[in-house]
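SEQUENCE-TO-STRUCTURE ENTRY
===========================
What this section holds: a protein sequence and its matching fold, both as plain text.
Question of interest: how does this chain fold, as expressed in backbone structure tokens?
***
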Amino acid sequence: MDPLLLGVGAGVASLAAGIHVYIWILESIRWGTEGTQRTFGVRTREEGEVLRTMAYNQGFYNLFLAFGAGAGVSLALSGLVEAGLAIALYACASMVLASLVLLLSRPGMLRAVLAQGLAPLVAIVLLSISFAEYISAPAS
């Protein structure tokens, strides 16, 4: 297995985790601020109040995906390669799928789709190549 490829893939998966922690902060902690609500296309304070509980809940989904990617990267880099890559790939795939749901439900939010889905997609490619090299390498 190419350690540089694994390292870059782990770095991109960590970036994806960081982005999702930031989304959690926006949705679960800073939801009541005008700037945050504007970011999510909320037009009025009343609409923001109606969406508060949903945003809070959704923010925690993003946090849990970030934890999954981070835990997977940590395990993979600490020597538990198979388990770590499996967890990181699952978390990153969930992030990409969530971004596709956003694209299908709100096509006008392409910038948010790319912010949410591009890093985990790149991580999936790099980590999948690393995983394929790992399982095809002769046992020592």
